[in-house]
Amino acid sequence: MTIATVPLYHAMAVWSVALESHFGWSRGQLGLALTFTRIEGGLMGPLEGYLTDRLGARRMIFIGLIVLGIGFLIFAGVQSLWMFYVAFIVMALGQGLGSWLPLMTTINNWFIRNRPQDYGQLPDGDPPAPTPPATEEVTAPSGRADRPRPADTARRPAPHDDGDLTAAEALKTPAFWLISFGHGFTSMVILAIMTHLGLLLKDEGFDVQTTGWIVVVYTATAMVFQLVGGYMGDRWPKNIALFVFTSIQAAAVVVLTLASSLLMFYLFAVLFGIGFGGRNPLTTAIRGEYFGRTSFGRILGLSTVPMNVLLLIGSPMAGYMRDIQDSYDMAFLILAGFNFLGGVLFLFARKPRVEARR
Question: Which segments constitute the Major facilitator superfamily (MFS) profile domain (predicted)?
Answer without folding.
Answer: 172-358
